[in-house]
Amino acid sequence: MYKKILITLENGPADETILLHVTELARRFSASLLLLHVADGWVARNFHTLELAESEEMKDDRVYLEKVADRLRDQKFPVETMLALGNPPTEILKVAESAHCDLIAMAGHGHRLLGDILYGSTITQVRHKTSIPILVVRGRKKE
Question: I want to staple 6 with a disulfide (CB 3.0 to 4.6 A). Which of 83, 90, 95, 101 is the partner?
Fold first, then answer.
């Protein structure tokens, strides 16, 4: 059923929640995992256009992705990582399609009211623009 699962990570507490759910699915279906973090700060959004140097945040995100991937590899999961730059919903959709993922797994946080009203949540934007199944798990909030 699932051969390749895209897991969106935000480098926060909600990541552990989604990883617990997805690793069980991956084990049952012998699926490979693609860990994705979308850096969306000013440098990340303008990185290619302005030919900027990688920010400390982007470097930290790469280290974080590899740390999580190594932990999963120790558990015998086939894992790839990707750091995308820009608008999270756009990049998630682009990566899911180009990597031929069967499932997109994301942690949700509930409503942020004003931000969701003005911009819409990442999950809402992704779910309206893909035919790939999406697993949304309520994540822990940052403390």
Answer: 101
